[in-house]
Amino acid sequence: MTQQNNNGTPKSSRAQTSLLNFFTTPKTAKAAERDSQEALLDQADVFMDQDMLAEVENVERLAAPSARKRKAAVGMDVDEEDYKPSTCTRNGKNRRCIDDDSDYEDQPQSPTPARVNGKASKASGLGQLRFNAAESSFMPDDKPLAASLSRNLHLQKNSSSGVGSQPLMQQLQSPPRTPTDAKRARVSAFAKKNEERYSWLEDVRDAQGLRPTDVGYDKRTLLIPQSAWRAFSPFERQYWEIKSRHWDTVVFFKKGKFYELYENDATIAHQEFDLKMTDRVNMRMAGVPESSFDSWVAQFVARGYRVARVDQMESRLAKEMRERGNSTKKGDNLVVRELTGVITAGTLVDPALLTQDLATYCLALVEQTHDDDSGNLMTSFGVAFVDTATAQFSMCTVPDDDGDRSYLETLLAQLNPREVLYVRGGAGPGSAARGRCVEDAVLSSPDARDGMAGISQATWRTLKNTCAPTTDWIALAPRSEFWDALTARREIDQYFSPWPAALQRAADTQPLALTAVGGLLSYLRTLKLDTDLASLGNFAFYAPVQHGSSLVLDGPSLANLDIFETESDGASGSLFSLLDHARTPFGRRLLRRWACHPLGHAEAINARMDAVEFCMGDVGNELAAALVGMPDLERILSRVHAGRCKVADFLALLSGLDAAANFIAQIRSTYGTNAPARIQALVALFPALDIQEFRAAFDIGVAESEGRLIPHAGSDAQYDEALAAINEVDAWLDQHLADARQRFGCASIVYKHIGKEQYQLEVPASVQMPDSYLQLSATKSVRRYWSPELRTKTKQRAEALETRAMVLDSYQTRLYSRFDRHYATAMKAVSVVAEIDCLLALATASSALGAPACRAKIVESGTIEFQQLRHPCVALGRGGSDFVANDIVLGRQSNKEAATMVLLTGPNMGGKSTLLRQVCLGVILAQIGCYVPAQAATITPVDRLFTRIGARDNLLAGRSTFMVEMAETAAIVRHATPRSLVVLDELGRGTSTHDGEAVAFGVLHGLCARLGCLGIFSTHYGLLADSLLHTDTLLRPMHMACAVDEAQHRVTFLYRLQHGVASKSHGMNVAAMAGVPAPIVARASAIAEQFEQRLRQRRRRAAESASTAADASQLLPLPLQSDFANLLRMAALPPSTDSTAGYEQPVGGAAAAKKANENQYWSCIIDHLRRTMALRHNGPAVDLVCEQHMT
Length: 1191
Hints:
alpha/beta; six-stranded mixed sheet; DNA mismatch repair protein; MutS, DNA mismatch repair protein, domain I; disordered N terminus; Nucleotidyltransferase, domain 5
């Protein structure tokens, strides 16, 4: 029986302790270095240890040694089914030695001449010694050792010459005659052997023979020459067959109660985590206990490694049964092992490995080129992604994206995928082409029409620039690894019949999205995850830009406004960190989706605000307390469907669903119809859950204490049948014992269980037993027998127990399958709780904003107005005490015409960029449904928010700062509508002053006069304000105030928004504050004054020159001329040329007056001009122009 400590806990054997210490005890760097120098020399001492000198018995029945000699070593934490033990003697007692290297391979055993009548001879000297260095100890060498000594050292005893009494080292055939010489010889032998080991690993190549430096190298495969395959042992062949297909993956190879890592993987384990590394025949080896597998895998994945899990697929009993077949191959003696899964950072499914509540996505991308109606080459994308923890698949098609990949960039910014799959052949790591020819090759390839040509350079730049630096890029071979649409159809038929509605729609109308799904499923198949995830059927379409229903936040806006991350602090300080008060993991994931897609309709915004307002205060605190500690029901439901849910997680699922039902019942009973409409609707949507059916099915106490599901009687027919078979045998055994006591007249006869020989009748030695009884063991006082019937019945009982174990294993799967039928109902309940949790989170965030904070008033008049608005994140970060709040108005005010655009000027570091961001964040908070950090707020729902803030280049894309500015500005001009909010910060700073001012002039005028959208335009171009403000009432001049001490070159920033244009940007003052030497600042100030004087003189001369041709008051301003030309284009009038005052001018001419509809267009134009010029007090000029044009 297993020995125990004083406290009653099992006592670990010495072998068990040494194994665990070897696998788990790390070394310090210095200790590791010291051991690497001394380990080889120390190994020779092992041969001098008299404890290691053992006579080997020729055991005929190795699996069942005698009961008396089956010592506590059997209780060692190394399963007999996993390791084949050999038996040797030590101090006259049998013990078991783990032959890890043999892996169930039969080892030749020479006869032992010293055995006399089945017992070991005690004559002086040593019997024949079979010694295996790997068996004796695990060598903690830090350097890889190819082999120790010969696998078998045969030392023949010679009693006549007395050799057996000589020191062991003198009996070796090697030349050294002293221990020191032996140690040196061993070091030399090891070094020589290491030079020869696995030479093909010195020049690594993939399966196609390509080196890592070659174009198209596949890092996932390894080429092993045929000569090496022939030299492999069966175990090595088994390992390298798996490792050669997963060369870039750390392979955890199951060996008994341990997972072992070999060769390069062992080196990684040693270098990264200081795990002890030793040598396993020809391979370096490190290992970890089975019980700590999840912990170690989590650490490897956190360091960026992919992990493959190889498990044993049979027990020792199953192996022995297989060996009784007709197979005679040596390799068949190996335990069957298979790859059971590959774990990557983007496809984590085990709750023990998931470190965050937010979703982690694996995304597949396929690019397609096609011609539009005009013959222009257009680019579309098919995208599919999956959250493996919840088995939620999403897909979409991005049609006709622009050259800057704006829609693709927005999608990537929203998802932030951890792994990106793409077709090998174009740009990106693992591509088959490089350089400038990649773009032309991808776009012109015939495969580009179905997405099988890879991705273009422009797409790769967008991916690399938008995704996180930790993203894994995985290139898959076209069609074979990344399925095209046709292959995807065939393969998906294996998963579904009929297909989920979303997949069927993709097959019918969006083949590019189906191709992306094919690439994703193909990849998941290599990870052994496809069936577990896809079979759930959770496929849906995803819209990165939801026009009309939500506020569109594109990629630059998400980055510029720090929605999810800041450049300095990561997630801390972002808007989402302000909102992130959800109590449940699935609530946090939904809240992040809300932050990506704020609401776009006034009715939906007000309904959510009503619910948030209701949840503020004591009501919210009471409801939130009921959600604290709720498990991640969404993820656990996915694991139940896959049949891979741990018992503890299943119990947590049942408890969590019970808590969810009680939570909804609490809202219904406490608040009823007093709750807002949205909360009432959610309560009504919550389904009826019958959890008690599953709670009553098994023993909850055993499940909690032992982690096993034991069904109650009557709840599972298969278990009842297996239990009845055991009870029948047990009843016979009880009766048989009673009969034996009566037959032999001895009441002291009892059953004795020794090892696998159970139910031995222990009888006093004085009792005579029939010859038909088989004696198994004996002591001086008792003998133990099996009756003829007992032998059969014990076998029957063992088989019945095995059947019960198999039934219990299958019972867990059957129970999960029964529960999975209610998946849709359970997910509906989870969705309801998640939304209420988000409402509670917004209520908490609203309360945390401090005073003043208000609920925004939603109107349809086209205005944005804030009173005493603060930046939500900055104000909270500073405690809200020293942040200066400001008022700002855009659009209509009090039913009067007002400026839609604010022209913002002010000093450097005066707070202009902060003001821009806080206006945008105020709008986003309001449309999410949260309170706004302002005294009062009135907004019209915005359909899209555009930002151009900050100056940065894009080295990867080969774009300068100005090019990045222009690309973002072009997207704004193309996609903005009158309901959009546009924020531009110092547009044109990346080029020369005149070019920048001209670009800023054109963009600002276009936004005001033609689009009419709301916005803020921040600039340092003072002349821009002079040119536009006097001619356009749609612009309101505002500036950030400051106090300037010219004598001291000191600027005091007031951060107060005031009406008017700033006189200067005070760049010299800021330079002085930054520590620029005073002489440099003085010289710069003088030069700046000269530039300003020259500019004023040029403008004065230009005005005087213009006045000689015509009266200056009669000149049309440039913006009005632009408006006039634009209206002509809108009217689609054919211009005629009339010579007036010596120059040609496009007018409608006499032909226009002949048609009534053209006259109507002209009337509209003239009315517009008169109204606009009247507002500018320049009526005579418009009269003159109209007279000229209508002649």
